[in-house]
Every structure is written in structure tokens, then in C-alpha cells.
Amino acid sequence: MKYELGDRVKIKKHWKRQPLPYNLDEMLEKQRDEIAGAGIKFDKYLKAQCNEEGFICGTRSLKTSTTLSYEYHDAIDVGVGMIPEKEGVEQMDSEHVKVYLVATRMNYLRKVSKEDLEFISEWRK
Questions:
Q1: What pLDDT shows up at residue 17?
Q2: What are the backbone angles phi and psi of residue 24, rounded to the nearest 5°?
Q3: Residue 52, helix vs strand vs coil
Q4: Structure confidence by residue, pLDDT tens digits, 82-122
Q5: Residue (of 111, 28, 16, 14) closest to 67 by Cα position
Q6: Which of 100, 5, 11 is nearest to 59 (CA)?
Q7: 110: closest CA among 57, 61, 63?
Q8: Do 3 and 116 contact (CB within 8 A), yes or no?
Q9: How many CB atoms lie under 10 A from the CB of residue 68?
Q10: Phi, psi of 79 (to 5 degrees)
């Protein structure tokens, strides 16, 4: 089922933001030999249980996780000049999901996947 703006829905689970480690750069730099080329996966959002009702107010694409790695690149001669060497944390890839924004309170939006929504009624003019 495709949900429309204003549809009243019940939420079973929602995406909740997870904090990244506060010393991420230091942690990746210490482990750079072990994670070189492989990377470490960090979940930015995880699903949490929820039992609320609200109204559909939009859709978004949400980055749920990312893989970070400590990389080193040598300087490259491109003919016109040199690209300098680079060392540091880089994002290797990420995972995205489509979510619905559900207004559950006057000033709060929940990010909810389609499979975690249950239709209650449609908005009427």
C-alpha cells in the first residue's frame, strides 16, 4: 500500500539515531593496519520499538549505516600538476532506505519504514 500525505497510521517500529564513538578518528588511526581496505561498519540508525499513532507528512531517503576506513593515497602526477598525498578517514560505502516521516506530536517527526506502518484512516477535507 502506498501512503498519502495526511493518512493516519500506527507505528510499530521507528529508526532511532545511534551516536558514533566520540574518539572516532583516534580509534581508526590506531587500528589503521587492521582495517586497511576492509573498514569498520557503523550503524547510524537502528530500529526501536514504538507504539504511537500519527499522520504521514513526507518521505525521505535515510542513510542507516556507513563503512569507514583509514586510507593513505600516494601523490599522483596527472600531467598538469600533482595531486597531493592524502591520509585520513574515508567513507567506503553506505546503506540507504526509504522512510516515511510521521508526525506523532505537535513538534516531533518519526522516521518509519513502510513495513512498520499500519493504516488507520485517510485524511478527509
A1: 92
A2: -60, -45
A3: strand
A4: 677 777 777 888 999 999 999 988 788 999 999 999 998 87
A5: 28
A6: 100
A7: 57
A8: no
A9: 21
A10: 95, -50
Q: Which residues contact 110 (CB under 8 A, 6 or more apart)?
A: 11, 14, 15, 50, 52, 54, 101, 102, 104
State how far the Cα of 101 lies from the Cα of 75, in Å rounded to an integer: 45
Dihedral over Cα of 72, 77, 78, 82: its sign: positive
Give the list of residues 6+ apart from residue 31 with CB closer than 8 angstroms, or none.
Answer: 40, 70
Question: What is the pTM assigned to this prediction?
Answer: 0.75
CA distance 9 to 57: 11
What digits encode the pLDDT tens for the residues 13-43?
A: 999 998 876 676 677 677 766 666 677 788 8
